[in-house]
């Protein structure tokens, strides 16, 4: 049976872009006679709030969607992510990194410094070769750190990689696509205060929940390469991917959670119907 999921972060109100992701997943699950899950990606405890979670459920119910209960809340499953992290650590693929954001900025000012698909400079990797004793000493002294993947080593074990795209990426790529996680460098897998990251938890959860079809916005297209690498390293199954186009507001700006005029709650209060929303996001003919 095919399993789809909508996985918002409850750190703000939903907008039209979320409506597209949620409705598309629910419609595809329905058409396939499959299951539709809702997952709260709330590992960022500083930004995620129960009131946003309640608002998300209210907006999705208003859109006419229903999903299986209980909803998986990532903050309640940190042990699952820790286990995956330990496994990668046992394989020698994890190291603690100590450079602060400012230090990373200073070291990467050279315009030729490589940047990831999100435009951020790749991690300089200063601490890749710290001795275990020194790294442990700094952790025990209370220094902030992030646990990172040794990308080159991980690729030696897990590469070469591909993923199957049933939609189209930002440049129209479709079908079996080469995944190049090395473009991201040594990605963060966990932080001092939280034993996971977006990449790690999404991969662990999709596998634990048996997700067969990942349908999400094309802003996450390039992240898929990292997800495939983690799936291979952790021995997890490969879902198919469908990245949908993002919804832009009139001036061609990506929607953000702070844009009141495209928020679902505002649109509902303004008298817009769920059918109007479906027409606006292209899921119903005008
Ligand atoms: N939680 C992510 C977001 O809200 C989506 C994760 C995913 O669909 O893989 O952008």
What's a concise summary of this model?
The chain has 286 residues and is α/β, with parallel strands linked by helices.
Mean pLDDT: 95
Shape by Cα distribution: globular
H and E string: EHEHEHEHHEHEEEHEHEHH
Number of strands: 10
Measured between the Cα atoms of the first and last residue, the distance is: 32 Å
> Helix coverage percent of residues?
25-40%
The stretches of 5 or more residues where confidence is low (pLDDT under 50) are none
Rg is: 20 Å
Strand arrangement in the largest pleated sheet: 1-2-3
Annotation keywords:
286 residues, alpha/beta, three-stranded antiparallel beta sheet, 10 helices, 36% helix, binds glutamic acid
Describe the protein in words:
The relative contact order is 0.18. The two termini are 32 Å apart. The chain has 286 residues and is of the alpha/beta class. The longest helix is centred in the N-terminal third of the chain and has 16 residues, at 16-31. Strand 2, helix 2 and strand 3 (72-73) form a beta-alpha-beta unit. The mean pLDDT is 95. It is globular and about 60 Å long. It has helices at 16-31, 50-62, 78-90, 101-107, 132-140, 151-158, 198-208, 223-234, 264-269, 274-280; strands spanning 3-6, 35-40, 72-73, 94-97, 146-149, 161-165, 175-179, 188-191, 213-217, 240-244. Helix 6 packs across helix 8. Helices cover 36% and strands 15% of the residues. Strands 1-2-3 form a 3-stranded parallel beta sheet. The protein is built from 10 helices and 10 strands. The chain binds glutamic acid. Glutamic acid binds next to loops.
